[in-house]
Amino acid sequence: MTRTVYVNGDYLPETGAKISIFDRGFLMADAVYEVTSVLGGKLIDFAGHVKRLERSLGELDIKKPACFDDLLTVHRELVARNDLVDGMIYLQITRGSDGDRDFTFPDSETTEPTVVLFTQSKPGLADSTLSKSGARIILVEDIRWGRRDIKTVQLLYPSMAKMMARKAGCDDAWLTEEGVVTEGTSNNAYIVKGGRIITRQLSHDILHGITRAAVLRFAREAQMEVEERSFTIEEAKAADEAFFTSASAFVMPVVEIDGTALGDGTPGPVAKRLREIYLEESLKSAI
Ligand code: PMP
C-alpha cells in the first residue's frame, strides 16, 4: 500500500513527497523528531510528545512551524488516511533550507522549518513476541554528544550500536559511560533489585522519555519503590530483573545483559506488571 505522508502542509503519496537536497536535516542532522504510538487507531501519550517536541525546538532555537497547533489534527488525519490501527507516527522538523549549504543557521525570519510526518503500520504492536520472551542486550560505550535530552535525528551511533547487538545475536544495546548505564539505544533503562525500581535521573545525559514519566508515575501509584539514580554495569548484571521503556516498545522486559542471565532468564514480575499497567492506563487516556 502506498502510504500517505505529510510534508509542509500537504498530504501526499510517499512516492510523490519531496524536500530540498539543501535541507539542513539532510545536510547537518539539524532536526528534531518525535514518535507517537497508535493502538486501536488512537494516539498514546500525545500531549507529552508535543510538549517534548516544543522543548527540543526551543533548545535548538528552531522556530515552531506554522502547523504546530494543528499537530493533533495532522496525526489523526494520517491515522485515518492510512487506516492505521496499530503502529507509530514519526514526526520530523528540520531547520529548513535557504537554498545552499552553510554551517551558520539560515535567517529564521525568511526560512521556514520543514515538517514531515509518516506512519508505520505494526499490527499487534502491543502483543510483540519480544515482550513475551524478553530482550537480550549487550553493553556498548556511549560516545554520543552531550545533549541527549534533545530528541535530534542524530541517530547514527544508536544505529551502529543496534547493529553491534544484532551481530552479537542480541536484541538491543544499552549504552555505558564510566561504568554506569546511561540509557538504551532508543529507550530508557531500568533495573529491579530487592523490589526497588532503579533508573537514571534526568539530566542532559539521557532523553527524558515520555514513557518513562508515565511508567514511573504508575509505579509510584501502585506503591512500588522508585529510585532515580545512576546504576553501574555490575549492579545491572546482578539485578533481579531489568526492563526498558519507549513509545514503541512500551515496557520491555530484559532477560540477559552482556551474556549474564537475570533471575531465571525469563521476564520478571515487576516488568510484566508495569507493562500491563502501562498498556491499560495509556489505552484509557489514548485520544
Ligand atoms: N532514550 C532514547 C535515546 C530514545 O531514542 C528513546 C525513544 N525515542 C527513549 C529514550 C524513550 O523515549 P520515549 O519513551 O519518549 O519514546
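qc> The CA atoms of residues 57 and 63 lie 7 Å apart.
qc> done
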